[in-house]
Design a protein that fits this description.
Blueprint lengths: L2 E3 L2 E3 L5 H24 L8 E8 L10 E7 L1 H21 L16 H16 L20 H11 L4 H13 L1 E6 L2 E2 L13
Parallel strand pairs: 3-5
Antiparallel strand pairs: 1-2, 3-4, 5-6
Helix pairs in contact: 4-5
């Protein structure tokens, strides 16, 4: 428990003097993020994105063998993470996501689906039954949908509030990307060009 004495509190986090700045900073950050969610306003300092290309195939210089990882301003990333967590709780409570959707779901992985597929193959082999399967590699699946038709319509179908969809749209429209490479950063550009963008 916490001990009181001579104006200071002691607990696992140290004395009172060390706690106060953290409380003040967290309250300020909370208010700043709430302003964004309530008004749809996005801070101009959140516009920069840095794209890092991580090689998928060792030694390959082919651009298709790289995985692009986007780095965002930490407050913008935090806001997106908070919104996603809140929305995901609602999806889970109401069963919005199909039970067959295993990827990107909390506590679930694609291993279960692969194991089930293997069991079916083995069963059909042992009992001489016909079986067919189809696997499709969605190459660059996350790069190809447009923000408006692909992402936004998908979020509308899943019941995401319109104001949050618009907030995400504002963040994407204002975003200016730079690619990190061996000699520094590329000039800034808008993701997907000047149209709705991919």
């Amino acid at each position: 428990g916490a001990e009181e004495g001579r104006g200071k509190r002691r607990n696992g986090w140290g004395g009172y003097d060390e706690q106060q700045p953290a409380i003040v900073v967290s309250e300020g950050v909370r208010r700043m993020l709430n302003v964004c969610m309530e008004t749809g306003h996005v801070y101009g300092s959140w516009s920069q994105e840095v794209l890092c290309t991580v090689p998928k195939v060792k030694g390959s210089t082919y651009i298709g063998d790289t995985r692009p990882i986007g780095l965002l301003v930490i407050l913008r990333n935090s806001l997106m993470g908070i919104i996603y967590r809140r929305v995901r709780v609602v999806w889970e409570e109401h069963g919005v996501i199909a039970s067959t959707q295993l990827g990107s779901q909390r506590g679930m992985g694609t291993e279960e689906a692969r194991m089930l597929q293997t069991y079916v193959f083995e069963y059909c082999y042992l009992f001489n039954k016909d079986v067919a399967t189809c696997t499709e590699d969605k190459k660059h699946a996350f790069d190809s949908p447009t923000q408006t038709v692909g992402f936004q319509m998908g979020m509308m179908r899943l019941g995401m509030p319109e104001r949050l969809i618009r907030l995400d749209q504002v963040m994407n429209v204002m975003g200016r990307m730079m690619v990190r490479y061996a000699h520094g950063m590329s000039p800034e550009f808008k993701r997907g060009g000047e149209g709705c963008g991919n």
